[in-house]
Amino acid sequence: MAIRIRVKRIYEPPSPQDGFRILVDRLWPRGMCKEKAKVDLWLRDMAPSNELRKWYGHDPDKWTEFKKKYLGEIGEKKEEFELLRKKARQGTVTFLFSSKEEKLNNAAALKEFVERGRGDSPSARAARLSSPKSQVEG
């Protein structure tokens, strides 16, 4: 089965098209009650570290480097990454985030990694990131 992942701001109303809803932020969203959020799974450990999140600060000029560093962090979380892939193969999943930045955020990066199957070992990741093709992809 093909992987189907959506990305959505948690403050948007839930819809049947969301499928299985996974919150991928480290902190619970401000002002959002659990009943209204309709989160099926909260994987706070799949969020970027506080250090990486603060460094990035949603600066578009840092997006490519953020994704590389975030991918490095995710490489240490094999079990959680495989759970995301498994859920996505079972049906539509929606990665929920709270950031006001709707395009360049951790949920969008995580979607890209899961769709490409990129939760691999640090050595395989390093080899791929140093290849000319991956540098063009950004």
Helix share bin: 40-55%
Give the strand order, joined by hyphens, for the main sheet: 1-4-2-3
Shape call: globular
Distance between the termini: 27 Å
Mean pLDDT equals 87
- How many discrete domains? 1
Structural class, from secondary structure content? alpha/beta
Question: How many β-strands, per DSSP?
Answer: 4
Q: Write down the Rg.
A: 15 Å
Describe this structure as you would to a colleague.
With 138 residues, the protein is an alpha/beta fold. It has one domain. The chain is built from 7 helices and 4 strands. The chain has a 4-stranded parallel beta sheet, covered by helices on one side. Strand 2 (20-23), helix 1 (34-37) and strand 3 (41-42) form a beta-alpha-beta unit. The chain is globular.
Question: How are the secondary structure elements laid out?
Answer:
Blueprint lengths: L4 E5 L10 E4 L10 H4 L3 E2 L7 H7 L6 H12 L3 H13 L2 E5 L8 H11 L5 H8 L2 H6 L1
Condensed summary:
The chain is of the alpha/beta class and 138 residues long. Helices cover 44% and strands 12% of the residues.
List the defining traits of the structure above:
single chain, 138 residues, alpha/beta, 4-stranded parallel β-sheet, 7 helices, disordered C terminus
